Amino acid sequence: MEESKSDKPYGLVSVIIPNFNSLKYIEETIQSIYSQSYSNFEIIIVDDCSSDDSVDFIKNLDFIDSRLRLFVLEKNNGRPAIPRNYGLQKVRGEFIAFMDSDDIWHCKKLAIQLAAMDRYKADLSCTSLINFVNYIDLSNQPASYSNGKVERLSFEKLLHKNIIPNSSVIVSRSQLDKLHFNEDVRYKAIEDYHLWLRLLQQGASSIKLCDPLLFYRISEASISQHKFQMLKKNFMLLSEFKINNKSLGIRVYIYMMSYIFYSLIRVIRRRM
Known about the structure:
Elements: E1 13-19, H1 26-34, E2 41-47, H2 54-59, E3 68-72, H3 81-88, E4 95-98, E5 104-105, H4 109-120, E6 124-132, E7 150-153, H5 155-160, E8 170-172, H6 191-201, E9 206-217, H7 227-240, E10 242-243, E11 246-247, H8 251-271
Parallel strand pairs: 1-2, 1-4, 2-3, 6-9
Antiparallel strand pairs: 4-8, 5-9, 6-8, 7-9, 10-11
C-alpha cells in the first residue's frame, strides 16, 4: 500500500509510548518515529518512575524537538495500562498510535497506514510485523511495500485470537472518547487485547495491512512471551467478557482452542 502521492495531511498523529527502564533501546524507538516520511506527529512518552537514566537520556537527545513531550509519573505502577491511559489524557491529534519503548517502525509506516485508513474508511488499523532479537539492519528498508493486501478485521475473528500488534495500531481519537485500557493488574499484558475487543464490539471499522511495517523486539522482558501465563490470561479475559451483558459461555473454550492452535502454528513456523 503506497502512501498518498500528494502527501495529504491526514491530521496530527499522537504516538503514546510508556517507558520504564528502557535506556538500552529507547533512542532507536524514538529515532524510528522521527525518521517517518509523514512528519505531522507528536510523541507522548509517559515514564513509569524509571530507576535507570532513561528520563535524562531522552531529555538530552540532540534530534528531538517540540513534537516530543515527556511526562513522569509520581510512582511506579508496574504495568503499561496506567501510563497509556495517562497519555490518552494528553493527546492533541486526530489519530492515536501506540508503541512500546523497544520496538521500531518502518520509515513509511504512518504514511502508508494513514492512506489505507483513508481509502478503506477505517477507524482502526494495524500491520503485520517482523520479529527481531538484538539488532535489525534498517539501512536497507524498502522504499515502500508493494504487497498492498488489506484484511478486514471483525469482532468475531478477534475473539478467536488477538492478531493486532499493539505497536502497530493507529486509531481515530473519536473511537477512544469513552474507552481506555483496563488498569486491573490481572489484565497486565492483555489490556491491549481487551481494548481492541471493546473497540470492535462498539462498531469500529478495522483493517490489518499485510505488509510488515513494525519491527517487534523479542526479549526476556517481553511479557507476552510467557505462553502459559498468556494462555491463562486470555482464558480469564474471555471468561469475563460480556456481549449484551451475557457471558460467552461454552464459546470461551472454542476460542481458547483456536488460540492454542494458532500459537502452535507460530512455534512451528519459527522452528522451520
